[in-house]
Specification:
- With about 250 residues, the protein is α+β, with helices and mostly antiparallel strands.
- Helices cover about 45% and strands about 20% of the residues.
- It has helices at about 20-100, 110-115, 135-140, 180-195, and strands at about 125-135, 170-180, 195, 200, 205-215, 220-230.
- The protein has a four-stranded antiparallel sheet. Strands 3-4 form a two-stranded antiparallel ribbon.
- A hairpin with a 6-residue loop joins β5 (about 205-215) and β6.
- The chain is rod-shaped.
- The N and C termini lie far apart (about 120 Å).
């Protein structure tokens, strides 16, 4: 029983504590110190476990970084090996672009004449042909704007259907013969109806300049000369990217 403890607060038989009060206090202090030491040891153990885990995570992160660096180095080496192929592809692309630029306004007159020969009437035949490129085509090839002459200080206008109307890129002059004037007219009407390319007429402004009938040698014959313009549909389109429309 500790000093100063009332008898009324005790449960059961009274207990008498014969230990000196100073010794009781020393035991209490030792218990407190032991508890504090145990708590400190638990804290140290927790810090040690945390340190070990953090060290392991750092080691794993460093290993992952080393692996990524090794992968990047391998990719750089592969890129260096494939660089000649990339240079070759760039050269091929540049060559394709240059070729497309060169052939951009190509007219394959063999194809044009094949189309025209298919629509020439049986009673008409051609004796000569001359081709001239227009100023608009030459200016476009040179990268400059075409110039149009004017008279009287006003702008020059072209009658629709006459030679030069519709911004043609070339002009063909024909000389030929036929049995009758109506045959020559049929040839010009055939030129006006076709051929077409991509829905756009290849021939523009068919126009005859002379048509003379000769009854000599007992055989009536009509000699004529005519012109026809070619639109941008006459361009061959060779080596052009898909969907390219040549102006």
């Amino acid at each position: 029983m500790a000093w100063g403890t009332p008898w009324t607060q005790q449960q059961g038989p009274p207990r008498i504590d014969l230990l000196p009060r100073k010794l009781v206090e020393q035991r209490l202090v030792r218990r407190q110190r032991t508890g504090i030491g145990a708590g400190f040891l638990v804290l140290l153990a927790a810090l040690g476990v945390w340190y070990v885990l953090e060290t392991q995570q750092l080691s794993d992160a460093q290993a992952a970084a080393d692996q990524e660096q090794a992968t990047a180095a391998g990719l750089r080496a592969q890129r260096a090996q494939l660089q000649p192929l990339a240079d070759l592809e760039a050269q091929i692309a540049a060559a394709d672009q240059l070729r497309a630029s060169v052939y951009r306004r190509e007219i394959r007159f063999s194809s044009v004449m094949h189309d025209i020969s298919a629509i020439v009437p049986e009673d008409v035949w051609l004796t000569s042909m001359a081709v001239a490129f227009t100023d608009a085509a030459n200016a476009a090839q040179a990268g400059t704007a075409p110039t149009t002459a004017s008279t009287g200080g006003g702008a020059t206008t072209t009658t629709p259907g006459s030679p030069g109307a519709g911004s043609p890129v070339a002009s063909i002059t024909f000389a030929g013969a036929g049995l009758e004037h109506v045959d020559v007219g049929g040839f010009l009407r055939a030129l006006a109806r076709g051929p077409k390319k991509g829905g756009q007429p290849v021939c523009l402004n068919p126009y005859f300049t002379t048509s003379d009938k000769d009854d000599g040698d007992g055989q009536a014959m009509v000699t004529f000369s005519a012109t026809v313009d070619l639109s941008t549909a006459a361009y061959s389109g060779r080596y052009q990217p898909a969907g390219t429309v040549t102006p």
